[in-house]
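TL;DR need structure tokens for one chain.
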Amino acid sequence: MIVPSVKPLFSILIVALSLLLAVILLSPRSPLSEPPVSAITPRLGKSDIWSVPRIMEWRPCKWWLEGDLTAEPAKSNGYIRVDCYGGLNQMRRDLCDGVGIARLLNATLVLPKFEVAAYWNESSGFADVFDVDYFVRRMSGFVKVVKKLPKEVASKEPFRVDCSKRKGHFDYIESVLPSLLEHHYISITPAVSQRRDRYPLYAKAAFCQACYSALRLTEVLEKKASELLKAIPRPFVSLHLRFEPDMVAYSQCQYPNLSIASIKAIEAARGDRRPWTGESALVWRNRGKCPLTPKETAFILRSLSIPADTNIYLAAGDGLMEIEGLTSSYTNVFTKSDLLSSEDFSSMHGNTKAALDYFISINSEAYVATYFGNMDKMVAAMRAFKRLHKTLLLDRRAFAEFTSQGLYGRELMVALWEAHKDDFALGRGYALPDCFCEFRL
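>> reply
TL;DR here they are.
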């Protein structure tokens, strides 16, 4: 009888186990690998980010709400029309700037022109979105607004003064007032990223009044927005998620593991804006320039102890990609297309859809922004105006730096909690300093 040797079998088993262990140890680990919730509870505590005690908050400055405003001069220097471009909140920003400029130059403000933009799927004008009569009434005492021009002025086109590409401190009195005095009717698009710290208080007050106290949706649109608000289960978080093809293409960032459909959509939107590569791509990402993916967003929300059963209203544009990365962790996600009738939804353009998102976001229990753009700045400041302080900007830069340092799983969650805890406690970046002042609590 021949007894087979166990040594070859044992050797094969050892080799197989060694190979399996090597595969496990050497396989790339995802920084988004999440430990069980119970594993992070002792470190982060049972409370969510909103339970962190606040140290500072922003409130409307007294000089705006309670100050003795300088009376408008009896004689106007002419008429100014503000030409607004881009998405709704960019145009809203331009309008607010234009109001401040009109008061600065002692001009009468003509109702703004919202430029039709095919890129934004847009055809709505100012009166299609905002209540014109309310705007005129609320601006009384700050700047004069007219709905119609005098016949002698209405018969001609305004003289175009281009200051849209100017940055920093652009002197409107020196550069624009001469054209206003000469032509009596001009149109402008305000300078990009202009400084208002040198404005007289009456001009700054007009700017603040226009932004936060004079713009109300039309009756029809506000009714629709109110119906949408009632349809969302309370309490809820409004999440402004930016991961559309054009947004990603414009960022010039690269993302591994995207679906084929997402990759094709990004390439179609990229044009001549090629993504950064190599070391430059890492530097760019670590500067916080890359939009968070839905999966990264969900991971950060989990890190902030926001429960998986939280009701989330998705304030986002059309074409949002990789949404499964969010809904796989948070199942109670609601969108406009879910809650509106197909007829209502299909009849809306970019501005009216953005107006609904804005209305919902300034009335939600909490607001979370993943990219601090024009809408986020307006919403955050309006929430501060309404004393709604559960507002948070997710820190793309911190997320990129932590992951590039090799943090993952529980360590990454703890680091993200600490970074966002400090941001929320200090009220960093969630209100516009032009109209709001810091208050220590």
